[in-house]
Design brief:
Length: about 100
């Protein structure tokens, strides 16, 4: 059972880094720091968008508009942090 918890924790940790990469990529893209016509950059941006958008969209629908500031990745990171802590401190002791 511990192996299952560790696998879920590793997947959540990987998704955390993907969310951070997506946020940084969107900032770099918005300020024209990276070349948007580069094929690799475009495919990387499309991948990050397709991986994170299905989870971020419902959060964006719930949150009020904050004049162009998107805090949905921060909210999602808090949710992931809560799930990870809950899994290790509450669920695992109940299973063992």
């Amino acid at each position: 059972m511990i192996a299952l918890f560790e696998t879920i924790d590793m997947a959540l940790n990987l998704y955390t880094w993907i969310i951070i990469a997506s946020a940084v990529f969107s900032w770099l893209y918005a300020f024209n720091v990276i070349n948007s016509s580069n094929r690799f950059v475009a495919s990387l941006g499309e991948f990050l968008y397709k991986v994170t958008e299905p989870v971020l969209r419902p959060i964006r629908n719930i949150l009020p508009q904050l004049s162009g500031i998107d805090i949905s990745p921060v909210i999602l990171l808090f949710i992931i942090f809560f799930i990870r802590r809950f899994m290790w401190t509450t669920l695992l002791p109940m299973v063992l």
